[in-house]
Design a protein that fits this description.
This protein is mainly alpha-helical and about 200 residues long. It has a three-stranded antiparallel beta sheet. A hairpin with a 2-residue loop joins strand 1 and strand 2. Helix 5 packs antiparallel against helix 6. The N terminus is likely disordered.
């Protein structure tokens, strides 16, 4: 299952997708809005390009699913804002999302409404990497695989990981992270995931 895309902006948590139910159910966003409230529409762009139409349709479907999820959260007493035109929901302070009893109850009750971020939406939100960033990501993936994390994902031609599913908690993965982290700017003495 794909994990969610989470972004921090000045201590605020912005969720853009789904989370698998690992430690806590997080991400996605949706709300009980009406169809005509100005959030992404699939019908507005008539470029004739099938891929563009498909991506627009996926975006509209994703935003609508996020709205339903937010509507559920609100129904459970957690005040969540509407998703933006890309399906992102700014939930504010991340600690509230992880500790507030209303938020935790709402997450549990509404987890069945979480949907994965469509690949076309995820890719559209990612800036293109420079040649240097692509080289570093490829070097990092190879290093991780050679130093204890053989299941670490390969990178595509665009420098992005092809799959994000790997065991980051094994002793080998922790060792590889310490060894290879400096390639992408992670200090070798940074904390490693606890397992």
């Amino acid at each position: 299952m794909r994990t969610s895309s989470c972004r921090r902006f000045g201590g605020r948590l912005v969720l853009a997708g789904v989370a698998s139910v690992v430690a806590l159910v997080v991400t996605g966003c949706g709300g009980g809005g009406n169809e005509g409230d100005g959030v992404a529409s699939a019908g507005g762009d008539k470029t004739g390009d099938k891929a563009s139409t498909s991506a627009s349709s996926e975006l509209a479907d994703y935003v609508e699913a996020q709205r339903k999820w937010v509507g559920c959260l609100r129904g459970e007493g957690f005040d969540a804002p509407d998703p933006d035109t890309k399906g992102n929901v700014d939930l504010g302070d991340a600690s509230k999302w992880k500790r507030d009893p209303k938020a935790l109850k709402a997450q549990e009750k509404c987890s069945n409404l979480l949907v994965p971020v469509p690949e076309s939406v995820e890719k559209a939100q990612q800036p293109e990497l420079t040649k240097e960033e692509i080289r570093k990501n490829q070097q990092y993936a190879k290093c991780m695989q050679e130093h204890g994390a053989p299941d670490f994902p390969d990178t595509g031609a665009d420098g992005r990981m092809l799959d994000i599913t790997w065991d980051s908690t094994s002793a080998g993965a922790k060792r590889a992270t310490r060894t290879c982290g400096p390639i992408i700017g992670i200090p070798s003495d940074a904390p490693t995931p606890q397992g």
